[in-house]
Structures are given as C-alpha cells and as structure tokens.
Design brief:
9895_t:CDS:1; 3 helices; WH-like_DNA-bd_sf; Cullin_neddylation_domain; Cullin; Arc Repressor Mutant, subunit A; elongated; mainly alpha
C-alpha cells in the first residue's frame, strides 16, 4: 500500500505543476479573466478531471507567488 500512496502523491504533485503552467499560459494569452472564466478555461484545457477547489488553491498559490495578480478594481457579481 505504501508504494500506491507514494504514486498517488506523485501524480497529485505533478498535476499541480500542470495546472500552474496551464493557468499562466491562459492568462498570458487572455491578459484579464474573471475567476469563473479562468476556472472554465482550465477545466476545458486540462487533460484530467480537476476539482474546482483544487484549481482555486492553485490559482491562490500563483497569486501568492506573484505569477498572477488579482485586479482590485473588478467587482464580481
């Protein structure tokens, strides 16, 4: 079981990198998107089924690491 758990953890970490790369690529092309639009684009482009809470965590991580920035002037409705 330990090897199976290690494999699952490795796959999970690898997917983090894929989500990060895809999000940065999308934002370089589009320049500005709402959170909902970015999630929708990610779900459409990723080759695996991702959960929205996981994508939100990755986007927050990219914002924290200053790969993306939040537009404080945009009000979400």
């Amino acid at each position: 079981m330990e090897e199976n758990e290690k494999t699952v953890e490795r796959v999970f970490l690898e997917r983090h990198y894929q989500v990060d790369a895809c999000a940065v690529r999308i934002m370089k092309m589009r320049k500005s998107l709402s959170f909902t639009e970015l999630i929708s684009e990610l779900l459409g482009q990723l080759k695996f089924k991702a959960e929205v809470p996981d994508l939100k965590k990755r986007i927050e991580s990219l914002i924290d690491r200053e790969y993306l920035e939040r537009d404080i002037f945009v009000i979400q409705k």
